[in-house]
Amino acid sequence: MENRPVPARARARGPTRPTNSEDLMPADADDATQPGLTRDALAQAALRVLEREGLAGLSMRKVAAEVGVKAASLYWHVRNKEELLDLLNDALMADAKAPPRSGDWRTQLRGYCRRYRAHLLGRRDAAKVVAGRLAPGPHLLRLMEDQLDRLREAGFSPADSAMISYLLGAYVQGFVLQEQSPMAAAETAGAGRREVADAAAERFRALPVAEFPNLVAMADDLTGPDLDARFDFGLERILDGLAALLPPDRR
After folding, report:
1. Which of 168, 167, 170 is nearest to 111 (CA)?
2. How large is the average pLDDT for residues 14-33?
3. Are residues 234 and 171 in contact, defined by beta-carbon separation less than 8 angstroms?
4. How far is CA 211 from the centre of its chain?
5. Higher-confidence position of 7 and 196
6. From the CB of residue 29, how many other CB atoms can be counted at a distance below 10 Å?
7. What is the DSSP letter of 16?
8. Residue 130 and residue 64: Cα distance in Å, rounded?
9. Model confidence over 26-57: pLDDT tens digits?
10. Taking each helix axis from N to C terminus, what angle separates 227-243 and 105-121, rounded to the nearest 10 degrees?
11. Eight-state DSSP code of residue 190
């Protein structure tokens, strides 16, 4: 008898049909085991769909069509869309580059965060995929190990290093999520971000001074800085705080 692989979710109890609403046809084992249909191939296909249609448009059916099989065939390799997103989470970091291992710890962590932000901004909806997701594959493992090693070398304790790695990732992801979100309905309708910010400044300046003295006086300060300046301001304050965890001679 010919031996064929059993779908991941059915190994314990025998083959069953997936119940995902996208899966309306039984999987074709020949499709599922065709040469080239691997988890890596699915991740690459998901990357292409994400770039074209965004996270909202990513579906098992569209990824299956990208590799030329029926949607049900994907369930031989991933159990559901969340597992596909786990693969995509790591694939998004395949070409991420760590900063040079030179300079002090501040320089290196600053480089990490700036590169990570640029990396997420350069890939459609990447921040929406990776934010909050802890599903490290080989690419993420490489970056995590490198960053933790630098933190330990700088003098941070193992526990602090782990917390710092999480903090920096969350800061960058959260900032990118915010800067990629519309500032107002006007931006969704086609206005530029600078135009929206200038309109907000005008509204602040027009407020009653007696009731809103700070908003009136600080209208330009509130709306003038660009996102690079805002990102660097937050990052530097984080680095300042981290320095307090080190002995004075290592800060």
Report:
1. 168
2. 45
3. yes
4. 41
5. 196
6. 16
7. -
8. 22
9. 445 445 455 568 889 999 999 999 999 999 99
10. 140
11. T
Task: Retrieve residue 140's tokens.
Answer: 């993420």
- pLDDT tens-digit series, residues 133-153: 999 899 999 999 999 999 999
Q: What is the CA radius of gyration of the chain?
A: 23
Write the pLDDT tens digit of every residue in 201-228.
999 999 999 999 999 999 999 999 999 9
Cβ atoms < 10 Å from Cβ of 138 = 9
Q: Tell me what pLDDT residue 119 has.
A: 97
Tokens of 72: 């049900």
What is the 8-class DSSP label of residue 80? S
**C-alpha separations of 77 from 33, 68, 137 in Å:** 9, 15, 15
Say how far apart CA 44 and CA 244 lie, in whole Å: 42
Answer whether residue 118 shows pLDDT above 60: yes
What is the enclosing helix (H) or strand (E) of 44? helix 39-53
* Cα 84 to Cα 64: distance, rounded to the nearest angstrom: 11
pLDDT for 34 equals 59
For residues 32 and 129, what is the distance between their CA atoms, to the nearest angstrom?
25
Say if residues 129 and 116 touch (Cβ distance below 8 Å).
no
> What pLDDT was estimated at residue 79?
87
Instruction: Spell out the residues 6+ positions from residue 185 whose beta carbon is closer than 8 angstroms to its own.
Output: none
Contact between residue 141 and residue 149 where contact means Cβ atoms under 8 Å apart:
no
Q: Which two tokens stand for residue 150?
A: 């630098």
Is residue 178 within 8 Å of 234, Cβ to Cβ? no
Mean pLDDT of 58-85: 90
